[in-house]
């Protein structure tokens, strides 16, 4: 057989060989560093037998799939250590993930002290250097094997596999785990790892199942790479909106109010108000008509839209369907309400497009395990809009929605942090969607052509579409790398029929319009979370809830400080005065910790000359300036929504 290697060279063998044996034949050093193989593009275990002509790559930690195998092996070492220290713990799953690995256990939660003990045990296991062996069992024997070990979650996983399937296991010393692999040849090569945190996680992601204890960790082949990553983790923890947003008093959560129902504090509410006014004004400038619709509706409305069948589990239902004549639900979206705004009068082709915009408060019954700060909540506010358009207007109006979204991202300084995804239906799960395969092909081809004409670079994802149409999802990641949807633009050719929406065309006949569902800035709460993390709480001046703080050096200058603040406020600048009986150095430090854009220090000389001493987070000490000049500059900065960069100096640190 002929084996074509990554560099194009060919090795010939007259008998079957394992991947690791081929690696050894190439180089003993390569075999020592091998983590997995790749045969004709498929990642395989090192123990896999090669018995035909193929292309083969030996994967090391320098390859993403090789690093994944390295980390997956570390997750098994973690599980072995936990079973040694906590024999009663039941094993669930332990995959490698983007930045490391995790393992779920049915066990009481683990403290940091517990993680330290587990780490010490893992080091012992690595030092033992046990060989890792792979073996398989028929399905029935595999079930019996795991039942005897008292591992119910593993039994459940095996029973989910088809009958007749050969089930693979990996054994290292006194520990055996159900696993598809791939794994290293022994535990010995693991050089640098760290258990980073622990949390709760529902079995299989459903709150109907048991809550398990999840341990997160990471692993690298070199200690300096691990240390660099741990330093990065420490930095992002300080940027986590869940921590920073509370430290800056932007939002809070209260147990008696409920999970996923955050309180926006005055500062956080001010930021959202600023964004909301900006978006509403911009949408009006672009021809949107504002609506204000109810926060709830009878189930009849959701039955027409098909949300009752497709989305009821995610809704807050008020009433009992079995007993009550009228059952209501809090709205999870605004679209059906705006359709009835459209239907209040017969529209002609001249009336289209109709662009409706609303600042909508929505309610979605998210699983408690999915809740996170401001990014995943049960009540949120969204810049929602629906465009009712003629077929010949689809491309122009869709482009307009993309242009609005890009304008919002650019203004917020987030345009470089997003990716674009075309979310399509899943033909293997057709019952989840409205319409026929032919209709979906038509509307998806239409969206693809529009995106290509715009020139957007995008990926395609099967199964991520709404049940009524494909969508363009604008995706962003939080500081931990978790991706969420920030803005969506959806193309809908189905719901106009269900709601009997029409327009009178040029020939006098009634036609069905298309509907574009879109957000311009998305969910305000989620956007605020991204902004907190993006700017580490040091927001652009126009978004800051406090833009200027006037700092009198003593009580004698309170009156002049108040006069300066009044001038600022009269020009629409958010200003306060720090009248506390503290030293000026302390006041300056406090203002810096609050991440304020500007501080104006005033004392005798400033009052006599009618000036202020300007300090900013951008340039540090900027010297004395007339109040009017400072007002002109900051007003221009706010008006143009400029995002000023920080010039790093000792003063501005």
Automatic annotation (TrEMBL):
Binds 1 zinc ion per subunit. GO terms for cellular component: cytoplasm. The keyword Chloroplast does not apply. It is found in: Cytoplasm. Keywords: Aminoacyl-tRNA synthetase, ATP-binding, Cytoplasm, Ligase, Metal-binding, Nucleotide-binding, Protein biosynthesis, RNA-binding, tRNA-binding, Zinc. Gene3D superfamilies: 3.10.20.30, 3.30.54.20, Anticodon-binding domain, Bira Bifunctional Protein, Domain 2, Threonyl-trna Synthetase, Chain A, domain 2. Pfam families: HGTP_anticodon, TGS, tRNA-synt_2b, tRNA_SAD. Its cofactor is Zn(2+). Residues 1-60 form the TGS domain. Residues 264-540 form the Aminoacyl-transfer RNA synthetases class-II family profile domain. PANTHER family: THREONINE--TRNA LIGASE 1 (PTHR11451:SF56), THREONINE-TRNA LIGASE (PTHR11451). Belongs to the class-II aminoacyl-tRNA synthetase family. This is Threonine--tRNA ligase. It comes from Lacrimispora amygdalina.
């Amino acid at each position: 057989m002929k084996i074509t290697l990554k560099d194009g060279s060919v090795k010939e063998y007259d008998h079957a060989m394992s991947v690791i044996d081929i690696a050894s034949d190439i180089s003993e050093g390569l075999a020592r560093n091998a983590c997995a193989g790749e045969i004709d593009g498929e990642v395989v275990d090192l123990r896999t037998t090669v018995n035909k002509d193929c292309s083969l790559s030996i994967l090391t930690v320098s390859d993403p799939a090789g690093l994944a195998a390295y980390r997956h092996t570390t997750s098994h070492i973690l599980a072995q250590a936990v079973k040694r220290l906590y024999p009663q713990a039941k094993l669930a799953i332990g995959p490698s993930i983007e930045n490391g690995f995790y393992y779920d256990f049915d066990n009481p939660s683990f403290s940091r002290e517990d993680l330290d003990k587990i780490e010490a045990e893992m080091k012992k296991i690595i030092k033992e250097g046990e060989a890792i062996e792979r073996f398989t069992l028929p399905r029935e024997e595999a079930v019996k094997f795991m039942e005897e070990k008292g591992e119910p979650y593993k039994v459940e996983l095996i029973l989910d596999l088809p009958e007749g399937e050969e089930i693979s296991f990996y054994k290292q010393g006194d520990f055996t785990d159900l696993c598809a692999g791939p794994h290293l040849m022994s535990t010995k090569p693991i050089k640098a790892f760290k258990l980073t945190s622990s949390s709760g996680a529902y079995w299989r992601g459903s709150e109907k199942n048991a809550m398990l204890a999840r341990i997160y960790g990471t692993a690298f082949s070199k200690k300096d790479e691990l240390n660099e990553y741990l330093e990065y983790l420490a930095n992002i923890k300080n940027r986590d909106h869940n921590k920073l947003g509370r430290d800056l008093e932007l939002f809070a959560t209260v147990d008696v109010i409920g999970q996923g129902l955050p309180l926006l504090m005055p500062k956080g509410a001010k930021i959202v108000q600023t964004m909301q006014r900006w978006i509403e004004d911009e949408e009006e400038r672009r021809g949107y008509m504002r609506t204000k619709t109810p926060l709830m509706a009878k189930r009849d409305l959701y039955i027409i839209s098909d949300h009752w069948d497709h989305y009821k589990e995610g809704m807050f239902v008020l009433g009992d369907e079995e007993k009550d004549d009228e059952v209501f639900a809090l709205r999870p979206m605004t679209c059906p309400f705006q359709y009835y705004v459209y239907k209040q009068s017969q529209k002609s082709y001249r009336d289209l497009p109709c662009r409706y915009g609303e600042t909508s408060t929505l309610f979605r019954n998210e699983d408690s395990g999915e809740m996170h700060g401001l990014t995943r909540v049960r009540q949120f506010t969204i810049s929602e809009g629906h465009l009712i358009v003629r077929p010949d207007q689809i491309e122009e109006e869709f482009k307009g929605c993309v242009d609005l979204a890009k304008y919002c991202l650019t203004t917020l300084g987030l345009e470089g942090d997003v990716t674009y995804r075309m979310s399509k239906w899943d033909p293997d799960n057709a019952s989840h969607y409205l319409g026929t395969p032919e209709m979906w092909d038509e509307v998806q081809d239409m969206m693809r052509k529009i995106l290509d004409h715009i020139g957007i670079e995008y990926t395609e994802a099967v199964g991520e579409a709404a049940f009524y149409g494909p969508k363009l999802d604008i995706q962003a990641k939080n500081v931990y790398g978790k991706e969420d949807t920030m803005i969506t633009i959806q193309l809908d050719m189905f719901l106009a029929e269900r709601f009997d929406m029409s327009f009178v065309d040029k020939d006098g006949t009634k036609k069905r319009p298309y509907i574009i569902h879109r957000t311009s800035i998305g969910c305000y709460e989620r956007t605020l979370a991204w902004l907190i993390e993006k700017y580490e709480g040091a927001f652009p001046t126009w978004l800051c809830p406090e833009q200027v703080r006037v700092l009198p050096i003593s009580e004698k200058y309170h009156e002049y400080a108040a006069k300066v603040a009044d001038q600022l406020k009269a020009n629409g600048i958010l200003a306060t005065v720090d009248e506390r009986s503290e030293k000026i150095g302390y006041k300056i430090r406090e203002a810096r910790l609050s991440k304020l854009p500007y501080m104006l220090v005033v004392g005798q000389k400033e009052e006599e000359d009618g000036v202020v001493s300007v300090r900013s987070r951008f340039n540090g000490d900027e010297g004395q300036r007339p109040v009017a000049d400072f007002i002109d500059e900051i007003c221009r900065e706010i008006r143009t929504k400029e995002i000023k960069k920080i010039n790093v100096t000792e003063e501005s640190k």
